[in-house]
Structures are given as C-alpha cells and as structure tokens.
Amino acid sequence: LSSLPLQILLYVNGVYYIFYFLATLAMIIYKSQVFSYPDDFLAPDLAVLFLMAFLEVPRLYLGFKGNLTEAEAPLGLSLGLTAGSVVLCVYLLLWQTYVLRADVLLNAVLLSAYGLESALKVTAIAAFVS
Fold it and tell me: Where would you find the membrane-spanning parts of this chain (predicted)?
C-alpha cells in the first residue's frame, strides 16, 4: 500500500531542499553585503532558515518511514511538520526583509512540492487506514 509517487517526491524534495537552503543562505549573505540590511532583521531571517532546515530532517525521515512501513502516525507527524515548514516558507516569501525574484521562484517551487506532498500523504494515510 505504500505510495511510490510519495516516496519519489520525498526523495526529490530532500535533494531540492539542500539546493534551496544553500541558495537562500547565499542570497541572504548577498543581500546583507549589497543592500543596507538592518542588523536587527538579519538574525531573524537566518533563524527562520535554520529552523526550517531543522524541521526538514525529521519531516522527511518520518515521511519515508511512515510510507515504507505503511504507518499512519509517522505520516501524520510528517504532515504536521510540513504545515510548520509551509509557515516558515511563507515567511521567507512574504515577510523577509528583502525579497528577490529568485526568492520568489525558490519558495514557489518549494510550496508547490509541499502541497503535492501533503496531498499524497493524506491519500496514503487514507489507504493505510482502510
């Protein structure tokens, strides 16, 4: 009953998130050097990015584990962590100090992946329960 599309998407999302983290970190460094980035706002933007990375590891692990073992609880926890990651992603998309077009593109792809992944998780949980 485990979902192959979900498993593939979890893997692709893990690889993409590494790229996303490094690109966003590089852009924050770039913005702090090129623009007059207020020191009071640099720390929260970096904290959100690192908190997001901290949430991503258990989110992906629980997603992989829940899907492969056909267990609802880990998939449900992963779905909850996905909601937290979506909130942090929206922060980086809308409320970051400076938002470049590259930020919009990276966050739009990540939010799309989160949405598709969430739909597949809900479908997998429904299949495991029935």
Answer: 6-30, 42-61, 73-94, 106-129
Structural domain boundaries enclosing 44: 4-129
Unique residue bearing structure tokens 């942090």: 88
Alpha-carbon distance 78 to 125, whole Å?
A: 11
C-beta atoms surrounding 44 within 10 Å: 13
**Mean pLDDT of the region 30-56:** 93
Q: pLDDT-based confidence at 3, cuts 50/70/90?
A: very high
Can you tell me the mean pLDDT for 29-34?
94
Number of structural domains the chain divides into? 1
Q: What does the H/E/C string look like for the chain? A: CCCHHHHHHHHHHHHHHHHHHHHHHHHHHHHHHHCCCCHHHHHHHHHHHHHHHHHHHHHHHHHHHHHHHCCHHHHHHHHHHHHHHHHHHHHHHHHCCCCCHHHHHHHHHHHHHHHHHHHHHHHHHHHHHC
- What's the CA gap between 55 and 59, in Å, rounded? 6
Which tokens hold the place of 106? Answer: 């990276």
